Amino acid sequence: MDHKYNIGSVHPLAISVSANLKDIRKIPVRLKISTGNYILQTHKASFSKNHYISPTCKLCSKADETVEHFILLCEKLEEARIPLLSKILDNGSLILAKVTTSFPIDLIQLIINPFCYVDINANRTGFEETSNILEPLCRQLLYNLHKKRYALLANIDKQGSRKSNF
Ligand SMILES: [Zn+2]
């Protein structure tokens, strides 16, 4: 089947996505992160006016839950992070060597949107590899982190309400 879409004002991150429904469901997490709308504890803390909300990560309680902490540092998310992150680093260094002229690379920026490092004059292969290999890995990583965080938070909430019932 020939899929033709009117790209119009679609966010550039969405353009590379295939027509696969499963993939489409994965977009929002990264779109939210890239637009600053993915709500972590540090955001909650800075929004809260009337009562105190701690910026500390609820998963590990070891540091403020910033975007950096969520994507790269939180040890509770390591299991969801390490396999994909090592793939991103392996593939990324090879691919980016072909398509980018802007060094150094900010790893978080790369994960949120690898296309920001693609030189507009880059060769076709490099661009295709970014679309077909690097970008799906980055998207998968963010989705996995989100899923794991969500599950852990749900668990923490459940324990909290169980305690308060006694
Ligand atoms: Zn943490």
Strand content: under 5%
Query: Strand count, sense and closure of the main sheet?
Result: none
Order of helices and strands: HHHHHHH
- Gyration radius (Cα, Å) is 18 Å
Shape: elongated
Name the hetero compounds present: zinc ion
C-alpha termini separation: 58 Å
Number of strands: 0
Count of alpha and pi helical runs: 7
Descriptive account of the structure:
The termini are far apart. This protein has 166 residues and is an all-alpha fold. Helix content is 61%, strand content 0%. The longest helix has 42 residues, at 124-165. It has helices at residues 12-15, 21-34, 41-47, 67-73, 78-99, 107-112, 124-165. Mean pLDDT is 82; it is low at 1-10. The protein is built from 7 helices and no strands. The radius of gyration is 18 Å and the shape is elongated. The site of zinc ion has 7 residues, from loops. This is Reverse transcriptase zinc-binding domain-containing protein.
Main features:
166 residues; 7 helices; binds zinc ion; Reverse transcriptase zinc-binding domain-containing protein
Summarize the structure.
This is Reverse transcriptase zinc-binding domain-containing protein. The chain has 166 residues and is mainly α.
